[in-house]
Structures are given as C-alpha cells and as structure tokens.
Inverse folding.
C-alpha cells in the first residue's frame, strides 16, 4: 500500500509541474499585437487555432489527472492512517474566560 501511495505522489508532482509549464506556455486570447487590430495571424508554429486546441487539450487532461491523483491521495492516506478527519489529532482550544469588569 505504501508503494502505491508514493507512486501516486510522484505522478501527482509530475502532473503539477507539467500543468504549470503548459499554462505558462499559453497565450491569452488576442494577446499578440495582431489581435488588438482584429488580425487572425499568430506567432505560433501550429497556426492560430491548432496550437490553442493542442494546449487546451493538454491543460484539460492534466487538470483531470491532477484531480484524480488528489482524490486518490486522500483516499490512500485515509486508509493508511485510519483517520476520518483532518482535525482528529488537534487539541481543542482552552475555554475562553469572561471579559474583565470595568474599574471605577
């Protein structure tokens, strides 16, 4: 069970770094100078629409894998520790005393 947990952590970190890179590569809509004047040109090698489709699909799939590995990590951690709450081991706060009465 521990090997699976560490494997999911490694996949999760790789997907996180990949998703960060993919998001940083993308340009916003009409981000180049031609977009300001309504031009359809683009500075990408794939053309104006093909690169957006590839990067959008990569972003979508990496986000789906990220969410799945996040859920898997929670489930694996919960089964390994037997806990049911994140706050199970936290001590409760000391009781709050009444405020002091004002002096003369």
């Amino acid at each position: 069970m521990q090997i699976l947990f560490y494997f999911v952590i490694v996949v999760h970190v790789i997907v996180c770094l990949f998703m960060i890179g993919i998001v940083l590569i993308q340009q916003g809509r009409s981000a180049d100078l031609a977009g300001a004047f309504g031009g359809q040109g683009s500075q990408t090698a794939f053309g104006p629409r093909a690169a957006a489709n590839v990067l959008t699909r990569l972003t979508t799939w990496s986000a789906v894998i990220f969410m799945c590995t996040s859920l898997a990590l929670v489930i694996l951690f919960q089964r390994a520790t037997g806990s049911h709450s994140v706050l199970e081991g936290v001590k409760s706060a000391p009781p709050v005393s009444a405020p002091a009465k004002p002096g003369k």
About this structure: Residues 44 and 68 are 31 Å apart (CA to CA). The first helix runs from residue 2 to 25. The helical segments are 2-25, 33-36, 50-81.
